[in-house]
Design goal:
Number of helices: 4
Low-confidence stretches: none
Organism: Candidatus Scatousia excrementigallinarum
Helix content: 25-40%
Distance between the termini: 12 Å
Pfam family, one: DUF488-N3i
Radius of gyration: 13 Å
Protein name: DUF488 domain-containing protein
Length: about 120
């Protein structure tokens, strides 16, 4: 398995990113599609709108958000498999737009994929 990392979509792309996968349901504000350097946009693997709105990026809700999101991920096994298949031959960088680098879906998804 190659390297799996996470990064804000607003950060400068690098050669080490490998395949860049956006895992937000909504397109990030202020980013032009041609400037995103995306290989894939996996909207469906992002938290549901209901979960995203409930979480509201409140750190005190992160533990429960993580549990709920992992439950949702169980219904997206095709997407999980697709990322794992890419990881067989390429580094993968999961991209997200949230300002909080510690409390977001990319942190949870990376942990889920590494299990």
């Amino acid at each position: 398995m190659k390297n799996l990392s996470i990064k804000r979509i607003y950060d400068t792309p690098s050669k080490n990113d490998g395949k860049r996968i956006l895992i937000d349901r909504l397109w990030p504000r202020g980013i032009k599609k041609e400037d995103a350097h995306l290989d894939l946009w996996m909207k469906d693997i992002a938290p549901s709108n209901e979960l995203r709105e409930w979480f509201g990026h409140k750190p005190e809700r992160f533990k429960e958000f993580s549990q709920r999101y992992k439950t949702e991920l169980k219904t997206h096994m095709d997407d999980i498999k697709q990322i794992k298949d890419i990881l067989e031959t390429h580094n993968v960088t999961l991209l997200y737009a949230a300002k909080d680098t510690e409390h977001n879906q990319a942190v949870v998804l990376k942990e889920y994929l590494e299990k």
